[in-house]
Design brief:
The protein has 301 residues and is of the alpha+beta class. It folds into two domains: 161 residues, Alpha-Beta Plaits; 54 residues, no CATH class. Helices cover 20% and strands 22% of the residues. It has six helices and eleven strands. The protein is globular, with a radius of gyration of 23 Å. The two termini are 37 Å apart.
Length: 301
């Protein structure tokens, strides 16, 4: 368990999150972890803490602070990219359902625990918002939509104009992006908690992503929630109380189920990544033990 900080950003206008293709008229809905780290690092420069920040993160192993990517939220519903081993649902009862589960790019964080436990979703309670590709409760709209803004560049000498379009994300009222900052230990939290909050408040005024000169990427004052990971995301399920056993000793011996074998001590537990994964030059990765997709990062400096 690690100390953690959940950050909620409520945009006050459009956001420009560049897609992997780099196309100006397209946009992404995930503000990836490397972009978030870069934004926080730029804020640390203005706060006079760059060298200490780099020494504690980029030049340290493990880093004192690690970020997830930024995912959408709507009111109290946090959305996330589901684990590929659990999505889309493979239950026979859902294969013929009216909801096209595989079309959902984002699902509510609250259903992940049930999916991993093998629970079946009730198709009557869910719909997929086609605009945002989010699985939302029936009757609700999605948290955002993609938009295109048109601009014209004017040559002040000749008067010639060049019309162009830029993609952006427009958030509905009550919606925004959330992310996680994970601290290596209590000492790292004590050292970097307040500087991180200050950096996010600074970025809320100056903006995230592209189009900042147009006023894009700005947010209201960020909301912070402190706690412990992973319990902040997936609270442990309460233990089911057992009924008192009134049977005789002989019947308990005959009717009891066999004790399941304990897992091997060296068995690897499954991992669910909420950020980009960049292996180091000396990391040995067994790619056959997971589901990985290559993301080509592009953009403009």
């Amino acid at each position: 368990m690690n100390p953690g900080l959940v950050i909620k950003l409520r945009p006050s206008g459009p956001w420009r999150i560049g897609p992997d293709s780099g196309a100006r008229n397209e946009v992404d809905a995930i503000y990836h972890s490397d972009s978030l780290y870069s934004a926080v690092t730029s804020a640390m420069v203005r706060l006079g803490s760059l060298e200490d920040w780099l020494a504690a993160t980029a030049r340290s192993s493990p880093p004192a602070v690690a970020f997830s990517s930024c995912f959408p939220f709507l009111d109290e519903i946090g959305f996330v990219v589901p684990p590929r081993t659990a999505w889309p649902p493979s239950s026979p009862a859902l294969l013929s359902a009216r909801v096209r589960w595989k079309s959902a790019r984002f699902v509510p964080l609250g259903i992940i625990e049930g999916l991993l436990a093998g629970h079946v979703l009730d198709e009557r309670q869910w719909v997929i918002d086609g605009v945002s590709a989010c699985l939302v409760p029936a009757g609700k709209a999605g948290p955002f939509r993609n938009g295109v803004r048109f601009h014209a560049a004017v040559d002040r000498l000749t008067g010639a104009t060049d019309r162009h379009s830029i993609g952006c994300v427009e958030f509905h009222p009550g919606a925004g992006l959330w992310a996680i900052a994970s601290f290596a230990d209590e000492a790292a939290r004590d050292r970097w908690l307040e500087p991180l909050k200050t950096a996010f408040r600074l970025l809320a005024d100056s903006g995230f992503g592209g189009g900042r000169s147009r006023g894009w990427g700005r947010t209201e004052s960020p909301d912070f929630t402190e706690g412990t990971l992973p319990e902040m995301l997936l609270p442990p399920r309460p233990a089911v109380p057992s009924e008192p056993d009134t049977s005789s000793p002989d019947s308990r011996t005959l009717d009891s189920e066999p004790i399941p074998p304990s897992p091997a001590p060296n068995r690897l537990s499954p991992q669910w990544l909420l950020s980009l994964f960049v292996p180091g030059p000396h990391d040995s990765i067994d790619w056959s033990r997971g589901s990985y997709t290559l993301h080509t990062r592009a953009g403009r400096v």
